[in-house]
Fold this protein.
Amino acid sequence: MEKIETIQTTYTGQLRTEAIHVQSGNKLITDAPTDNQGKGETFSPTDLLATSLASCIFTIMGIKAEAAGFSIDGAKARSWKIMTENPRRVAEVKIEFDFTMCDLTDKQKKILQALVKVSPVPLSLHDETKQNVTIKFAD
């Protein structure tokens, strides 16, 4: 398998990093959270883990929706990370997907529900990291 550089990260001091996406040049700044000596002025690395989980699931849902000829445009997700100590780590990520603004058939809803655990980020997380994902549809 070929290794292709994806991200260049620099520690800039004061518990911050700057990551550059090599292909696009886009930058992302992280800051330590306030509960771990940081200022909490932007995403923490563990915030990005929760964000990655929601974004990855949405991306796979979007791919499957487009292939099946329907749209999930405008759908939203809210994410929470639950930390634990000794060792300090993300113990659980809770995500609530909201598709109430999308006009979906029962078949389309089933397609989306089947994708929650099969995209790359959910499959990459440690088994001990609980993934609590719920989906809300319009009645």
